[in-house]
Amino acid sequence: MNTIFKISLIPVILFLLKFYPVAAQTPFKSLNYLYSISGTKTVAGIHNREPNSNPDLWTDSITVLTGKTPGLWSGDFLFSKTDVDERWKMIYEAEEAWNKGSLINLMWHTCSPAHSEPCRWNDQGVLDKLTDEEWESLIKDGEPLNVIWKKKLDDIALCLQYLEDKGIEVFFRPFHEMNQPVFWWAGRKGSNGTAKLFRITHDYLTKNKGLKNLIWVWNIQDFGTLNSDLIDFNPGKDYWDVLTMDMYSSDKTNYTIEKYNAFVKTAGKKPIAIGECQVLPTSSELKSQTKWTFFMSWAELTVKHNTISQISQLYESSNVITLDEMPGWNKKTKK
């Protein structure tokens, strides 16, 4: 009798697991939170681009505009002298945002290792084009550019270690838009291309520097080559925790089901998110593409490409999470 009863429960259990999946247990509270909301809700976020002297500028602008504060705060180590000089101010703002309950996202528009830092937004800086010989020097252990790159990692590791010491988890997104060849690090396909540099950076920061607070974000842009790019630029499943897409469609296709499905397929059970966007997704799009766990609009582009009404309606939507609805990181994460 008991055996029959247990067998009869199996279909019910399978049904519940399908529609109410148990949150994955990782070492990270904030990553577990993404797992817990995947399929139901999406965290609102905005990037705080230059200047690092005012690292909450764009977050504050949304709060003033909508009366709601984004649940994801984002900053950048950046590259110009004034912003490099203010990196610690940005890091302290990340600390404050975490203590308020935000997800913390950090990216790095970094100078080419073939030139000095600080640098500019030009072909001697962020937009440099490394030769094949320079690239080989970068990815081969002990070669001149490899040594320079690791010294640059040493510099930001000090900031990341500070955050770890404060108990702060970081969604770390190096080499964003890996399939976007405008950047010195990007557009190189294959096992010895951009994906190799991602793996080198991951291993150096986690193994050599011993950082344990980094949640690794792999990011590509929504080009027409998306399906092949998800293969050509993949660092390997052991090297990333979250897969994100930067949505800047020149053909205005934006949030198509084809892009969404491609990301769901590649990510498997891992979370996906909208890493950058200028045109915000609508609440309806997020309800039909439920696995986007956060969106991060790009600073000033948010108000340039969306009306105040569109922004406010999205931030008020029942399936969009703002800071006041976040669980807080000193408490048990809730769904």
In brief:
It contains 13 helices and nine strands.
Strand-helix topology:
Blueprint: H1 2-19, H2 29-37, E1 42-47, H3 57-66, E2 72-76, H4 81-85, H5 87-100, E3 103-107, H6 132-139, H7 144-165, E4 170-173, H8 194-208, E5 214-221, H9 226-232, E6 242-247, H10 257-267, E7 272-277, H11 283-288, E8 292-298, H12 301-305, H13 308-316, E9 320-321
Parallel strand pairs: 1-2, 1-8, 1-9, 2-3, 3-4, 4-5, 5-6, 6-7, 7-8
Question: What average pLDDT do the residues reach?
Answer: 93
CATH class: Alpha Beta
> From the helix content, strand content and strand pairing, which structural class follows?
alpha/beta
CATH superfamily: Glycosidases
The succession of helices and strands, N to C, reads HHEHEHHEHHEHEHEHEHEHHE
Number of strands: 9
Give a quick account of the main beta sheet: strands, pairing sense, barrel closure: 8 strands, parallel, barrel
Quote the distance from N terminus to C terminus: 36 Å
Segments where pLDDT lies below 50 for 5+ residues?
3-7, 12-20
State the domain count.
1
Oligomer: single chain
CATH arch. level architecture: Alpha-Beta Barrel
**Biggest sheet: strands side by side, in what order?**
1-2-3-4-5-6-7-8
CATH topological fold name? TIM Barrel
| Beta fraction | 5-15%
| Number of helical elements | 13
Fraction in helix = 40-55%
Shape: globular
